Amino acid sequence: MGINKTENNSENNEALTGKRALKYGGLWRAIGFLIILLIIVLSLVPNPEEISPVSVSDKLLHIIAYAASMFWFGLCIKREKLYIAGIILAVLGIIIEFIQGQTGYREMSLYDIYANIAGILIGFLLSLTRLSLALHYIEKKLFR
Question: pTM for this structure?
Fold first, then answer.
């Protein structure tokens, strides 16, 4: 019985340190790229307010979108690569804002960039918690 507990602790430690790969890592990363694609599309459509059934602060939506995408990648990539993912997401957010400024129907906003970066930081911090084990847990329970 003590062996199983030790093995479980070992598995958890490996997951936290990024040493153990997810069995379906490719699937989880593909879902992450779909999340990013959704962010890009919603950031560049003419009137995203018409799409949303709920009136929510634009900046809050930026924070949620970038926190969710950063956290998602925090679930499925190794911890040492989180910094790279954060930088890529920040650069993507800046590029999207520049493109919005060129569309004629959207505006570039420095505050949107700040909100994106705040979201990335929130997602990054969540990725450092035990919540980062969620996909390991899902794989263990659903895909035995």
Answer: 0.78
Residues 6+ apart with CB under 8 A from 113: 93, 94, 97
pLDDT band at 6 (very low <50, low <70, confident <90, very high): very low
- Residue for token digits 């560049």? 44
Which residues are CB-contacts of 135 (< 8 A; sequence separation ≥ 6)? 22, 28, 75, 76
Instruction: Tell me the three-class secondary structure of the chain, residue by residue.
Output: CHHHHHHHHHHHHHHHHCCCCCCCHHHHHHHHHHHHHHHHHHHHCCCHHHHCCCCCCHHHHHHHHHHHHHHHHHHHCCHHHHHHHHHHHHHHHHHHHHHHHHHCCCCCCHHHHHHHHHHHHHHHHHHCCHHHHHHHHHHHHHCC
Determine the Cα–Cα distance for residues 104 and 100; give it in Å rounded to an integer. Answer: 8
